[in-house]
Write a structure and sequence with these properties.
Elements lengths: L1 H17 L79 E4 L7 H6 L3 E9 L5 E11 L9 H8 L3 E3 L1 E3 L2 E3 L1 E10 L4
Antiparallel strand pairs: 1-4, 2-3, 2-7, 5-6
């Protein structure tokens, strides 16, 4: 059987060789129009000559100062300040919020891996008890000034832990809306 298969293969190959095989016609490559480069003249930057500086103004003549002083009438009534014996009403005192505790935010791993530095501006409300309410990111930017949100989550987590002495108006603590804080992110060198 092997002898028969070998014989058939030899017969088939001889038939392939015996046929007049012609290669397919090859189309000539497309013609490319000639390229004409315009004449380019080099640009020369010339520096203008520096003009002569302006004339200096004449020097200022010094004025003479009279160093003698005539004694005049100086009041010599020296006594301690008088007490008016009036009490200060503490209910009228007003004060702006004062930060008590501002923990540093955690540097985001994504920003650290990419070497990104920048800052985030956060806006929030300081409540009557000094805690932070409704924090939101106003904007986050990298050092090049391009907007980024890589620091937003970290900044909001830090701001939520801020503590303030609340705003006091007429002796009563009140909420302060629209407080803004800029949180910077810088890699250690």
């Amino acid at each position: 059987m092997a002898l028969g298969v070998t014989g058939l293969l030899l017969f088939g190959m001889s038939q392939l060789i015996a046929t007049d095989f012609e290669a397919p016609l090859v189309e000539p490559p497309p013609k490319v129009a000639p390229i004409h480069m315009p004449d380019v003249k080099p640009t020369v930057h010339r520096q203008e000559t520096v003009s002569k500086p302006q004339e200096l103004p004449p020097p200022v003549t010094p004025t003479t100062v009279e160093r003698t002083v005539e004694p005049g009438s100086i009041p010599l009534d020296i006594r301690p300040p008088a007490s008016t014996r009036t009490k200060v009403n503490t209910a009228i005192i007003s004060a702006d919020p004062l930060p008590i505790y501002k923990p540093a935010p955690r540097y985001p791993r994504r920003a650290m891996a990419r070497g990104i530095e920048g800052y985030v501006v956060v806006e929030f409300t300081i409540s009557k008890n000094g805690s932070v309410k409704n924090p939101r990111v106003v904007g986050g930017y990298d050092t090049a000034g391009a907007p980024t949100d890589v620091f937003d989550h970290s900044a909001l987590k830090a701001v939520e832990r801020f503590k303030y002495r609340p705003t006091v108006v007429d002796g009563e603590p009140v909420e302060k809306h629209g407080v803004r804080n800029r949180i910077s992110y810088k890699l250690a060198e």
